[in-house]
Amino acid sequence: MTAAADRSPSPLTLLTSAPAPGTVRITVVGDLEYDTVEDLLLEVADCLARHPHLGHLRLDLAELAMCDSMGLSALLQIRRFTGGVGARLHLDHRPPALDRLLDLTGTLDHLLAPPSEADRPAPGRTGALDVPD
Questions:
Q1: Sequence-ordered list of residues with C-beta below 8 angstroms from that of 93, at least 6 positions apart, any chain
Q2: Which of 71, 101, 117, 133 could, after both became Cys, cross-link 32 (CB 3.0–4.6 A)?
Q3: Confidence class of residue 8 from pLDDT cuts 50, 70 and 90?
Q4: Angle formed by the axes of helices 96-105 and 69-84, nearest 10°
Q5: Which residues are 88's β-sheet partners?
Q6: What is the pLDDT of residues 37-54, one digit of tens each?
Q7: Torsion sign over Cα 18, 129, 109, 29
């Protein structure tokens, strides 16, 4: 086994604040991986429900320890959630390993793109946030 395989994931801690009207910041501390992504998705869904006129969702990732493919999938889901309500996603203080992952997958520009009409739910669709149970 490798050292990475022996390493148990660090717990994910989420600290949420509203530093300005129309803005919510979620500070992400720990690993964003299979066992922890649901916590972040639920927190984002809760923020979007509590702040219906949200303009900016800022994820502060300075203390993100690791992000695997499930973490990347969660970030893409969060972009879909925020775009669907017309809010812009910001990935603040990205660690170098996350920048490498986003560069290799070609997803950074998509994640940081401003919301557009194409992000809005189609007529007749609720735009509900689908968060796994």
A1: 60, 61, 62
A2: 71
A3: low
A4: 80
A5: 56
A6: 999 999 999 999 999 899
A7: positive
Residue 4 in domain = no
If you average pLDDT over every residue of the chain, what do you get? 88
Paired with 3 in beta bridges are: none
pTM: 0.85
Helix (H, G, I), strand (E, B) or coil at 75: helix
CATH number at residue 26: 3.30.750.24
Which run of H or E residues covers position 57? strand 56-67
Q: Report the C-alpha gap between 3 and 94 in whole angstroms.
A: 24
Q: Which residues, 6 or more positions from 30, have their beta carbon under 8 angstroms from its beta carbon?
A: 9, 10, 11, 12, 13, 36, 63, 64, 65
Six token digits for residue 131: 């968060």
Per the structure, the complete domain to which residue 65 belongs is given by: 9-115
Residue pLDDT, tens place only, 73-83 = 999 999 999 99
Say yes or no to pLDDT of 21 above 50. Answer: yes
What are the φ and ψ backbone dihedral angles of 6, each rounded to 5 degrees? -75, -20
Instruction: Look at the chain and report how many structural domains it folds into.
Output: 1
Q: Is residue 131 part of a domain?
A: no
SS3 46: helix
